[in-house]
Amino acid sequence: MAKTEEASGRRMSNKALCGIRACVFDAYGTLFDVASAARCSTADVVETETAGRLAKLWRNKQLQYTWLRAVQNRHADLWQVTGEALDFALETLAMADPALRERLMQGYLALDAYPEAAAALRALREAGIATAILSNGTPAMLSAVVDHAGLGELFDHVLSVEEAGVYKPHAQVYQLACDRLGIPAEAILFVSSNGWDAWAASAFGMRVAWCSRQGLTRERLPGAPDHDIRSLAELPGLLAAPAAI
């Protein structure tokens, strides 16, 4: 049966979150600001508007390449895909330069964490909720960005799709979290800012909080988030609040 929703599009009942034993987070765009690589790496060479265009094109092409490789069964890890997407973006914007490319790729290993991420993670752990990352990133990429942000001690697991050999939104990726955590999908709250990822995790059977910081239009895909939030700071309250009567 399809999930019912409030007229506003926000799911307000806390009943959906009863029995949650773990919060599993997408990394890129959810915990870490993917635009920060272009913003920080190009600050002295291009205008802010150009950096924004580069960041958007780079990210969009990166996602497209992961989806296309998944459906073609031609997997390559995200470091390679990110570089190929960057090459496309730089050439498109007439910015191709080996030194700049290297700076941008290294910047992807040192993305800024969203400012509320650390406090939200600490609050979840203090409440006895296990925490994990489930990401398209390679183990090396994820280790670098988590260490750079100083968040390493706040995760029980950091899971890469490389263990599944396919990118999100393939069901094998979400199953990986269940297998590694040793709990069923319905006991996991999956958190993502990417609508396609949030909807796919819901269709798989996980409970989902969609962190739509810009209040984006809801997807027309199988599944639906249990809660729409604008910041990770809302998560501890969702899990701690008493269920609606």
Could you describe the 3D structure shown?
It is globular, with a radius of gyration of 18 Å. The chain has a six-stranded parallel β-sheet, with helices on both faces. A two-stranded antiparallel sheet has the order 2-3. The protein is built from nine helices and eight strands. Residues 1-15 have low confidence and may be disordered. Helix 2 (48-72) packs across helix 3. The chain is of the alpha/beta class. Helix 8 (195-204) links the parallel strand 6 and strand 7 (207-211).
Key terms:
13% strand, 245 residues, disordered N terminus, DNA polymerase, domain 1, 8 strands, 9 helices, globular, Rossmann fold, single chain
CATH overall fold name of the largest domain: Rossmann fold
Note the run of SSEs as H and E. EEHHHHEHEHEHEHEEH
Structural class: alpha/beta
Low-confidence stretches: 1-15
Strand order of the largest sheet: 5-4-1-6-7-8
How many angstroms separate the termini? 21 Å
CATH homologous superfamily caption of the largest domain: HAD superfamily/HAD-like
Return Rg in Å: 18 Å
Q: Class of the largest domain, according to the CATH hierarchy? A: Alpha Beta
Number of domains: 2
Q: What's the pLDDT, averaged over the residues?
A: 91
Largest sheet: 6 strands, parallel
Helix content: 40-55%
The CATH architecture of the largest domain can be named as 3-Layer(aba) Sandwich
